[in-house]
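We modelled the chain as a single entity of 350 amino acids. Its sequence is:
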Amino acid sequence: MKYSKVFIESFGYELAPNIVTTIELEDKLVPFYRAVGFEKGQLEILTGIKERRYWDQDHTLAEHAAIAGQRALDEADVLSDQIGALVYCGVCQDGFEPATSCAVAEKLNLGESAHVYDVKSACLGMITGIVQVANEIELGNIKAGLVVSCETARQIVDSTINEINDRKDIEFYKDTIATMTGGSGAAAVLLTNGTIGNPDNQKHALKGGVVKNAIEHYRLCHWGLEQKGMPTNSKVIMRTKAQDVLENGLDLAKKTFDEFKKEFDLAEDKPDKFIGHQVGAAHHQRFYQVLNQDIKKDFATFPFLGNIGSVSLPITAAIADERGFLHSGDFVAFIGVGSGLNCYILGVEW
């Protein structure tokens, strides 16, 4: 993928209001810990996550995605009727039907000619949405597109904690540790062809990217109904073979990164910075060891936000930019591996 006239115009995000520490989660796991002889504190050591955030009990994903979207529009001085496509990309949705994007578009007062649809690609949903909107801009079909998402973790984490306490089984616990990393948040990325919005706004050129998959590993992670056929009374569960996802994901990331460097003819010291999908401490360390890159090039949010699914990478980019980590002229790699397995790496000239 190569682009010549696609720009990241702005980011928008909303942090969920309720901070939940890992110690608080472990307090709820006391029945299991007592049964197997675990001490509190080991979950934070395993994940490197001190806290994450939850939405209030009564909320919709669309309302928070719309808030993030409006912030991105306001930042760039772009009007909602200038948006040619709105794509909602969350793992979490407000329902099977209609598309959650429809509710977001209505809240943002998008024009009636805009493309409005949902995209799902596990934790890479927003990156997939960025690619789809970028393709439309590059083709000249639209001048601007908004990619949004909102993720929630409260419900699946609380449900899984109840299962862990009921089963009191260490092997089952191993398949659910990844669930304990979940956080909540909303994000938006505004893409344009560079001809609209505030001319003084710094635009970040999306140069293109590389995608690879290892779909033979799609069974390693499952978040959905426990029973097949979408029965209405089925329980929602999440199970992850975390170590297998890590090892196979690292292999896929290395192959994708090697092709990315070749495709963009990057020197040994490039990229200048990395913005990655945030999972946890073990993934973070191993990722840059395998890529043979300095971990100091990366900006991490997982210790205080956890894994926010499709929102993790763009919200990390937004916060990194706010804090001055990303500098004008940096060649930045947006990189993530999502269950499936899929890997995207996008190159952005900051």
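As a brief sanity check on the tokenised model: The radius of gyration is 20 Å. The chain has twelve helices and 13 strands.
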